[in-house]
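User: Structure please.
Assistant: Input sequence and predicted structure:
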Amino acid sequence: MTMALLGAVQTLALVQTWAWPLPMATAALLVWRLDSASPGRAAVLAWSYGTGWLMAAVWWLFISLHRYGGLPAPVAAAAVLALAAALSLYLAAAGALYARWRRGDGSDALLWAALWLLAELARGVLFTGFPWGAAGYTQVDSPLALLAPWLGVYGIGAVLAALAVAALRLAQSRGRQWHGLVAVAVLMGATTLAPRDFTQPAGEIDVALVQTNVAQDEKFAADAMPETLAWVAQALLSARADVVVAPETAVPLLPFQLRDLAPGYWETVATHFAVPGRAALIGVPLGDFERGYTNSAIGLSAAPAYRYDKHHLVPFGEFIPTGFRWFTQMMNIPLGDFARGVLVPPPFIAGAQRLGPNICYEDLFGEELARRFADAATAPTVLVNISNIAWFGDSIAIRQHLNISRLRSLELQRPMLRSTNTGATAIVDHRGAVAALLPPHTRGVLQGRVQGREGTTPFAAWAGRAGLWPLLGAALLTLMLLWLHTRRAGRA
């Protein structure tokens, strides 16, 4: 129970600026317990820590399952607990291996960092991945955030794990282990010396970001639909900006449904933006029964219409994992299997800027967004996230998702425009700072001016070409070198 509470406490840093030291402290306490545990006991301790961590990070899934999905509260709570417990098995394996291989000296910092990195990569990649709450996101307001354009979110998490063990060893030696002090000093010093800008200004653009604020249980209600459609159209047509962005499923009807309910709706909106100097990016579902459905964004401008289809789909929300259809059939949510878009889509051109759209959950996968930077000629100058997390009510999910977008801006050094249903609708600059923000759960339009960026960060360069393989290779190489060092020391 103590380990679960420690795991839960460190998630405060996912939403609170002041809390960024907590993950390092709690990770150090976890390792302190692992130091005296057998591999089996260490697995249980690490699993408890991970389960508490994920339960505190994603408890808001209960809202979507119970309030909107209709699952009985005990069943919904059990489902969230089961998810957290299952995903924590990776950390449990890391804990067991640490207990078996640790040496009790400064090399344990590298050992734990490599095992931690492998556990986070497994959670973020296997079975389509669920990296929400990854340790690196807790450092978006810490000095370690300056490592984002070099190492990405998982690399930050590995450095955090190494620092936790180095600090623990230093405390245990009361300063006598000078290598622990050096490790802490070098890693913290590196964050202050890291260059801040790998990118250059690429012009400015005026933007208007729409926040619709439609409750999830009203979003597809027939009696509320006419008012919602009218307000969205008014917001799009009245905004004075180079580009207007409306959130995920801002127009919540398939094209044939919209033609029946509001004839001429799309034609009116498209005609308004078919003028040089005007552009709009609007979230809308597309498709039909024969061709399949997509979660998409339509780009309107004087150029031919643009279409972006979501590539990384949400398990249970946009596709049903094999063997789990029985679970989705228990809920009152219209679920199905959506078609996937391409991994590297073309940008949407708005004036001199190349906009790189992504939809909701997709901005958790920085390595996938980095793929768009392999070709400098088509690399986005501005990133755009359109989301609808009304599924999770008035919860910490809103602030967590904002910080996820901030980390993407730090990794890729691009501004991120966020247009959402209930929040957080925001303009994030290329250094991860929130330049403008609408209050959540309000209806309105956020206006601002954004500076596009050209150039490539080290993270975008290596992740854009090789994905997360370099991190996996670094973790495995570290383990191999530690094994060889231990073997040589045993022979001496």
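Residues 244 and 280 are 5 Å apart (CA to CA).
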